[in-house]
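Example 5.3 — Serine acetyltransferase
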Amino acid sequence: MKKETIIENIIKNKQNPNLKFELKEKTEAFSSQLFYTLFDSDTSVVDNINQLEEEFQKIVDLACWAPGKPCGKIWENYLNELPEILRKLNLDAKAIVENDPASRTIEEVCLAYPGFYAIAIYRLSRPLHLYGLPIVPRLMTEYAHRLTGVDINPGAQIGESFFIDHATGIVIGETTIIKDHVKIYQGVTLGALHVEKSLTDIKRHPTVESNVTIYANATILGGETVIGANSIIGGNVWLTESVPENSLVYHTPDIKIKANSKIKSDN
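Solution (predicted structure tokens):
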């Protein structure tokens, strides 16, 4: 096949004229710059807010190709939300310091904890999701997902003083509701009981009430599943039904330990 024919066929099969990877790249850079603006002591808030506004407008222009999308004057509304987002993130960082014996300072949490970074980008993406800005909120949280191993959909509702430890492998689905002072460890899934396209915009992920701890690799599924306040969900638990408040739920594996007779006889 001639090179000209190959090129012609490739062009013919590029069927998404609005698919611009520049949008992804700019959104990731915007997310990083926004994090620096809120937390880095050497980053000028005044200078960066102006730069962020310019970059945000470029992102909006790339994202809002479809008619009828709510893309006008988003920046002014978003800017007004940043102080409250920072207040919540400071509480998240404080919760990590107060609950993780391995953490020593807020600075350590902000610099070294992937769970905190994932929470931060989620909280920064959440208002844009609520405004209806297409694609951008998901690009922000997927950027954090790639960097941290934590997948938090921007549609999830998460309360104050949220604690994630170790981070890797955590999945928090789109319609999840998490109340205040919740602690989650690595490998936890808050997911749907089953997946069908007809369930779009229907609550299909669990609700976690306040002061709940969910240990490593627990899986909690279903839109009607509620984990009652002050409960502890042990590691490797699989739940598809609600749990009353003040519950302790644990998984009992069948583990057997025997002496190795071969080693004993060799000695």
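Remark. The two ends are 71 Å apart (CA to CA).
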